[in-house]
Structure formats: structure tokens, C-alpha cells
Automatic annotation (TrEMBL):
<dbReference type="GO" id="GO:0016616">
    <property type="term" value="F:oxidoreductase activity, acting on the CH-OH group of donors, NAD or NADP as acceptor"/>
</dbReference>
<dbReference type="InterPro" id="IPR008927">
    <property type="entry name" value="6-PGluconate_DH-like_C_sf"/>
</dbReference>
<dbReference type="Pfam" id="PF01232">
    <property type="entry name" value="Mannitol_dh"/>
</dbReference>
<dbReference type="InterPro" id="IPR013131">
    <property type="entry name" value="Mannitol_DH_N"/>
</dbReference>
<feature type="domain" description="Mannitol dehydrogenase N-terminal">
    <location>
        <begin position="28"/>
        <end position="277"/>
    </location>
</feature>
<feature type="domain" description="Mannitol dehydrogenase C-terminal">
    <location>
        <begin position="285"/>
        <end position="470"/>
    </location>
</feature>
<protein>
    <submittedName>
        <fullName>Mannitol 2-dehydrogenase</fullName>
    </submittedName>
</protein>
<keyword id="KW-0560">Oxidoreductase</keyword>
<dbReference type="InterPro" id="IPR013328">
    <property type="entry name" value="6PGD_dom2"/>
</dbReference>
<dbReference type="InterPro" id="IPR013118">
    <property type="entry name" value="Mannitol_DH_C"/>
</dbReference>
<dbReference type="Pfam" id="PF08125">
    <property type="entry name" value="Mannitol_dh_C"/>
</dbReference>
<dbReference type="InterPro" id="IPR036291">
    <property type="entry name" value="NAD(P)-bd_dom_sf"/>
</dbReference>
<dbReference type="InterPro" id="IPR000669">
    <property type="entry name" value="Mannitol_DH"/>
</dbReference>
<dbReference type="InterPro" id="IPR050988">
    <property type="entry name" value="Mannitol_DH/Oxidoreductase"/>
</dbReference>
Amino acid sequence: MKLSNETLKDLPETVLRPEYDRSKLTPGIVHIGLGNFHRAHQSWYLHRLMQQGLAQDWAIIGAGVRAYDETMRRKMAAQDYLTTLIELDPAGSKAEVVGAMIDYVPVEDGNGALIERMAQPDIRIVALTVTEGGYYIDPATKGFDAAHPDIVHDAANPQHPRTAFGAIVAALKLRRDRGIGPFTGQSCDNLLGNGHVLRQTVVSLARLSDPELADWIETHCTFPNAMVDCIVPATGPKELELVKEFGIEDMVPVTHENFRQWVIEDNFCAGRPDWDKAGATFSDNVHAYETMKIRILNGGHQVISAAGDLLSVETISGCMAHPLIAALFEKVEREEIMPHVAPVPEFTPQTYVALIKKRFSNPKIVDTTRRVAFDGSSRHPGFLVPSIRAGLDRGMGVEGLALVSAIWARYCLGVREDGSTIEPNDPFWSDVTALAAKAKDTPEVWLSMRHIYGDLGDDPRFADSFTRWLTMIYDTGLEATLGTYLA
């Protein structure tokens, strides 16, 4: 049955569906980046509020700024912006149709429609999921990358921007000039201090063309930090067939695990939904939650994903079923990551590692090692390097994390151990593959990437271990090297 407002009432009884009148919903949020994660996470929380008769004036307007977003818009529009979420649990799967999104802004050059929609007074939050590498951060300084061609363009053409951030700046200018007032900018990406990062990008971009507007944004807008968590695989042919097993024809279904977490700083200048009534947590200590999740979960993903793909293990659950890779995960987490993470009210580091191990091992979640290993250039410095530095600062060992860095260097050579080709899997793939080829004979070259490792290449406690492990991987192979480390 094709998914639509009209067919909701005819869905199989086993499928949960909106119990609220979607025709009476009014918008409050523009969300830029309507990928799977948003629809399985933030949209779900809002949907669950609506199921309680709450937040009826906070419906989501979808948006995007790239050409491929138009394809998503058309697919979503054809099914009245509904999404089927399929929870994948070893005990059994279940489906729920989420209806919190009610429209999608047309995608066009210059982003005029998006700017005008964000400038309307009913929009009180503009949220984003644009990936951790999408905030125009200078990799060397971690500050704003004012030299990026997209940013140069938007600074010179503020009324016709090409980036989401340029569109946000243009919309805020209209709101200020019309006397409407500010909105909250809400990042939902895996970045430490994601609200601070979003503020930096928006304010810095505004300052390049309109310093007075930048001051107004800095004074009146808020950018709450948040930690988001739910494992959401990409949608492919398997998922499209799976949704049909529930009797639904959905062009953009989403599969997800049976776990969600959202911890939010309560800092909203124009109001917000009561997400806590749907299970989210408002906290003044988001940083502790962020640190635990990014270092243990996201860092743990990087510990195993490149190793798995190198050994032709296709999924994360497959890595956890592989005795050597699973043991690598366990040893590195408990000896070199967990000791530098503080507890939060819900979890100790020990219980959180046990939870992540269970979640990664879920065989129903077909999360590919290739997807998780993507963009190591952003993920290694964001998810692993902080643990390396913490270990060195405390005089503790970093052998395992040096090995993980060596595995990534070997991965970027672009050839698996069985001889098959690893297709480009990083925004800077040509750069890292060229460097990986040089590092095969001169390992220390890899650590010369100061935008990733900073001065770690100058510290023999890390650099010597890295060199030894990478040499061993090339001499004896990855499995033998893992065996040596684990012994």
C-alpha cells in the first residue's frame, strides 16, 4: 500500500501511525538535511509529543541546499512527507509511521525559497544535520574556514548564498529588518560543542559581509549544545524490500536500532517543544554526555570500521562477531578510552561501554563498515585524537590507539588485504591515498598531517608506536598484527 495521508487508516494493525490530525499541524521548525538520522531521531521525538496531543504548532518543514536534496523532496512530497521507521531488534522488528514533517522547501539556486521560509515568524527553530565535516571548520586551527570557496561565495553574495549557513544569515537579516526577532539555531550533528560550532560558523560568516548583523545574531540568537545518539543505517534495496514486508510502499524508509538518546542544553530564544516529555533530557552538563558518546561510541566505531573493511567484514555487527576485531574494540575501549571519560547520571563509563558493545553486536542492524569508516579525515581528529591526548597527558599507554591510527593509514592505501579495491571513502581520498602510499615505506609521513594529529607526530610515545604497528601490518598482515597486540 502506497504511503500517504489517505492510506494511513488502512495500514496493517501492527503498524503504529499518527493518531493526531496532521491537517491541523502548523510549523515551528525548519530542518536542513533530511537524512535518515533526522527522521529516525529528532523527527521521532516530535512525533511522539504529537501523539500525546502536544507540540501541534511545532511541525517540521524540511529543507536542503544541494541538488540531491531535491530528489529527497520529491520522494517525500509524493507520500505527504510521511516516513516509515523500522526498529530492528534481535527480538523482533516493528514499524511506525512518523508524521511530524508537513512540508519541504523547494531546492533552488540561491536558496531564495529557504531564506524566505526561515524568515517567517512561525519558524522559531532552525535545525541542521549536515554531518560533522559540514561546518566549514579550518582543520588546522579548528576555527572558521573563511577561505573555503563556498564561504567566499556567500560572503560576496549574501542575498544568494549556496550554503545552509549563508541562507540562515540571510533569513536572520530579513527577520531583524522586519522586526520579527531571532530564532534558535540547533545543531544535531556529532560534534563536541555542536551549538558553539554552529554559532561560530553563522556569526563568522555574517561578519564577513555585515558586521552589524553579526553583532545582532550574537546578541539575540541562541545555539544550544546537544548530544544525539541512535544508530541509523543507510537505506538501500534491502531496506526497501523490508518495508514491503510490513505492507507499506515507502520510497524513503528508515531502519534504526531500539535505542535513542538526546541530551539538550535548555537555551532556546524563541521557545521549544517539551521534548523531555518524549524521553529527551535537558541538562546543563551536555559536555559530559557528548564526551562519553563521542569518545566511546563514535570513537569505538573508528576503532573497528577500517579494520573490518580491510578484512572484508561488511558490517559492524560482523566486526563484533570477528574474534580479533571484537577483542581490539574491548581492549582499546577499556584501557585507552574509558579511563578518560567521566560518568553521567544514567551511565558509568563501564556500563556505557557494555551498552555500546551490545548495540554494535545487533545483527539486525546492517550498518556497513564502509559507511562508518567514511570521512576518517574528520572522524579521527574528532573522535580518537582527544583520547590519545588524554592518555599521553596522564602518562598512560596509547598503544591501541596508535595501532588504530596505523590501521587507518593502511586502509587509506585503498586496497583490502584480499586485494580488492576500496572505493574512495573520504572527502580528501586522493590526498590521503597518496600519503598512505608514501607512509608504506616512511610511516612518520602519515603523522605529518598536522590538521589531524597536531603535534602528536613529535611525541615518540605515540609516533614510535604508530611506526612500529604500521610496519608490522605491512610485514605480517593485519590479523597477525592484531594477534600481537592482543597478546
